[in-house]
């Protein structure tokens, strides 16, 4: 099943690549400091990839923060459970 998913993703990527290569219209893109003429397919690809990377960075940092908080809370719970066990024996 995993192989089918991988093949499907590769096929969709190749179809998108083939359709994107057909769109060779040159557009004038104004960005903060300058402007440039780019192929529309290249510009869309760069913007998509940069958005994807930015999303991975944001959500990856949020995930790491939550995992760190879980680790700290488990450590605190273990410490408190050991303390309760010692107090119950006394």
From TrEMBL:
Residues 22-84 form the Lipopolysaccharide assembly protein A domain. The chain crosses the membrane at residues 38-59. GO terms for cellular component: plasma membrane. The keyword Transmembrane helix applies. It is found in: Cell inner membrane. Keywords: Cell inner membrane, Cell membrane, Membrane, Transmembrane, Transmembrane helix. Involved in the assembly of lipopolysaccharide (LPS). This is Probable lipopolysaccharide assembly protein A. The gene is lapA.
